[in-house]
Amino acid sequence: MWTLIICLALLPVLTTSLDNGVMRVPPMGWLAWERFRCETDCVRNPHTCISERLFMEMADRLVKDGWSHAGYKYVNIDDCWTEKKRNATTGRLVPDLKRFPNGIKPLADYIHSLGLKLGIYADLGNFTCGGYPGTTLDQIQLDAQTFAEWGVDMVKLDGCYSTPEERAIGYPKMSKALNKTGRVIAYSCSWPAYDGGLPPKVNYTLLGEICNLWRNYGDIQDSWDSVLNIVNWWGKYQDILIPAAGPGHWNDPDMLIVGDFSLSEGESRAQLAMWAILAAPLFMSNDLRRIGRTARALLQHPGPININQDPLGIQGRLFFSTASLDVWKRQLKGGRYAIAVLNKGTGGTPKKVELSLSSLNITTAQFYVITDVYEDKPLGLYKPNASFHFSVNPSDVLLLLVEPLSCKCKCKFVLKETCNVMEIRYGNALLEDVA
Fold first, then answer.
1. Which residue range or ranges hold the Alpha galactosidase A C-terminal domain (predicted)?
2. β pairing state of 396-405 and 367-372
């Protein structure tokens, strides 16, 4: 029997944050550090050294291979880009003359000509983490003005060789300095990562007022254990982290390492799914010239990207957890939810799971469509109290999209004064029977 479905759209909720107007959804792009680190020998390693060639080639790949179309817009320089000393006359930072012979301004112009944005790295203190000139408190305004004159679109301020007292002054000062330049420049702060990531040393209210994103935890490494450590920390301290995040101000769990050396296909799916649930910035750190087809297709998959970019900007929550299984839930626009079932186990068999939407406190609508995001396949139409069963492979994830059907039914017959729905179509898919 056919049923007429009338579905209602819901309006997004808007919030406010840092008043520079950028990053209303998590930023997406490419960042050099995890994959290329501080490689400066361009004689022996011309294709992998930190140089203008590297960033131009990555920008080219972002455009030619569909990355920018998928949403990846930033090309971000990290540490080790400068000369070992500032200009003796002007006091300004100087790009390495051999590795960036044309300077940063022409590089920014080239990246802008492709419709992309350029990010750059600085460090609060006498030195950067790699031993290059840092930005001391009296140099903040000069460096901010220099970056603005070069056409930089984002600044990451690291914290190596800084004291807690210097950070308390320097990070807010750089925020004001960037705004004072008159150029719109997004601001990434590493401040909380150097102070343990938690109150009382970290003031997340202040961070939301001065920064667009911030690193809370240690650097990601190219390993599944590193990914899990970050996810576990986010779950443990979610009651602190979730209220801090939102449009224009994001918790940053660090780079995506999908397409590098260590993650399996399942682990790669899991990292991207979790970063989508966490409303995290999506900065890849990989070699886009050599990335495999599977990793490329995964990172460009519209399903997890759309979840990540949801305009409500609500960070997901760990709903329940065991030693080997996590279930995460993120609220999305229009009464929708994203659910990530993460199998952290390494045993040889998949984990069998039974869930109902009511067990996840998803009960507002009469019916919900559940879709496997990576497979882009509707799994069925479910009432909130109905159970659904599935399995998740070891070190892998099941990412689900749950969408309400707020509908009025017209039936060909009435049974006990209620609609007895036998068939419902969602898009072109015939969903399983619901009674």
1. 313-395
2. antiparallel
